[in-house]
Design goal:
The chain is of the alpha+beta class. The protein is built from 14 helices and 11 strands. The chain has helices at about 5-30, 45-55, 60-70, 105-115, 120-135, 140-160, 160-175, 235-240, 250-260, 290-305, 310-320, 345-355, 360-370, 395-405; strands at about 85, 95-100, 185-190, 220-230, 275, 280, 290, 325-330, 335-340, 385-390, 390-395. The strands form 3 sheets. A 4-stranded antiparallel sheet has the order 2-1-11-10. A 4-stranded antiparallel sheet has the order 3-4-5-6, with no helix packed on it. Strand 10 and strand 11 (about 390-395) form a beta hairpin. Helix 10 (about 290-305) packs parallel to helix 12 (about 345-355). The protein is globular and about 95 Å long. The N and C termini lie far apart (about 60 Å). The relative contact order is 0.14.
Length: about 400
């Protein structure tokens, strides 16, 4: 071997050593010291459940692909997903239109799907964009909790030391030193004195009438300071406590708070908020329980195995008997009325998955599958739509949550 060849080999070896050494140092700096978290997260969907969903027209790969193409652009033009997207109508002036609204909770679901699908690069880009673009301190508790849960999920797969530090910072924003969620200003419906009768039980166990004055235009609102029950993500809180990010007892205290929000022994729904030492049972309508808020609270209880059986049975029977549920539960009538609560259908699907309830999962797959776009020429083929004022609208939350429930 010539002297020049030996020198060349030595130079190459030295360069390789420097590159490897630098890579190792970078890895140690950003990843090597990252704490290992053990968390409970979104349930893994078995083949049987995916097959059930596909029988109703919900195919995980197609739904995910179309959601990205329609709402992020075919080339991933946008990092953030809008809350909804309306495709072009039949008339020439009915152009396609994005909502232009970018909710942190929707980005969180998108982040969770990237992690679920093993798309590390997209997950990293989205996570960084969220941290750089959103003012996390100004986000609502519900929005921030959704991101923190997705961020934990991301961290267990791809997280760096810096990510661990950011997770601690966000936890400090959302919770106080005792592990209680921060209070926030909430708007609740109110009414003039005498507009409604009392909500206390009458002697025969029924509720007094609350039907007077329930026209939406007559409702006034007031502000209270408290904690919205649907924002208390119990699985997140247990994960944070189990990994030393919240003090011992945090989960138990929050669980007690949520379980105490049950409306009554005969109405297995949950209050809207806890403020000034009392539960506030109504939200947008003073005579009723907000079903969508209550069901999200029920999902959080279900995720930690604490949803009472009668609450679960109540929500299941709504779909067994009717195939749908409405947005308000009126005390005076003892049932739900108003518009369909389509926003929480994916939550119920997730509850069925968590509980291993084949029947309810099949029912909810049918409910969502009945609104799967089937026109072969549609840009939203295989996505789940809602028809509003004669136009077809696709919501990020619904499509992404269903993605998680079938992937």
């Amino acid at each position: 071997m010539s002297k020049n060849r030996k020198i060349l080999i030595a130079v190459i070896a030295a360069a390789a050593a420097l590159i490897l050494g630098g890579a190792y140092l970078l890895y140690q700096r950003y990843y090597g010291g990252a704490a290992k978290f053990d968390i409970e997260s979104y349930p893994i969907v078995s083949y049987e459940y995916r097959k059930t969903a596909s029988e109703h027209g919900i195919v995980a790969d197609y739904l995910w692909m179309r959601t990205k193409e329609l709402m992020l652009g075919k080339d991933g033009d946008s990092l953030f997903i809008p809350s909804s997207y309306m495709i072009a109508g039949r008339l020439s002036y009915q152009d396609a239109e994005s909502s232009g609204e970018y909710l942190l909770s929707d980005q969180s679901l998108l982040l969770a799907m990237y992690v679920r699908r093993g798309d590390r690069l997209s997950a990293m880009r989205l996570k960084d964009a969220i941290l750089n673009s959103f003012d996390l301190e100004s986000e609502s508790n519900s929005e921030l909790a959704s991101f923190l849960e997705a961020y934990l999920y991301y961290y267990t797969a791809y997280g760096s030391v810096n990510d661990g530090d950011r997770i601690r910072e966000i936890t400090g924003i959302l919770f106080d030193e005792e592990g209680s969620m921060r209070t926030e200003t909430l708007s609740v419906a109110t009414y003039e004195q005498g507009g409604f009768y009392s909500t206390v039980e009458t002697g025969d166990g029924s509720y007094s009438s609350l039907e007077q004055g329930t026209n939406q235009e007559d409702i006034e609102f007031t502000e209270v300071t408290g904690v919205r029950m649907s924002s208390v993500n119990l699985r997140l809180i247990r994960n944070l406590q189990n990994n030393g990010l919240l003090p011992e007892g945090s989960y138990e205290r929050n669980l007690e708070l949520v379980l105490g929000a049950r409306v009554s022994s005969t109405i297995p729904l949950y209050a809207y908020a806890y403020a000034d030492g009392i539960y506030i049972y109504s939200h947008d309508v003073p005579a009723a329980v907000d079903v969508e808020e209550a069901v999200v609270t029920m999902r959080h209880l279900s995720e930690v195995g604490e949803l009472p059986e009668d609450s679960y049975s109540w929500i299941k029977m709504q779909f067994v008997n009717s195939g749908y549920i409405n947005s308000e539960y009126y005390y005076s009538y003892g049932n739900t009325q108003g518009i369909q609560a389509s926003d929480i259908y994916p939550d119920v699907m997730m509850m069925a998955l968590e509980r291993g309830d084949d029947d309810l999962y099949d029912i909810m797959s049918g409910v969502e599958g009945s609104r799967v776009a089937t026109y072969s020429s549609s840009p939203a083929l295989s996505m789940i739509y809602r028809e509003e004022n004669g136009r077809f609208v696709f919501y990020a939350r619904e499509n992404l949550m269903v993605c998680l429930a079938v992937t």
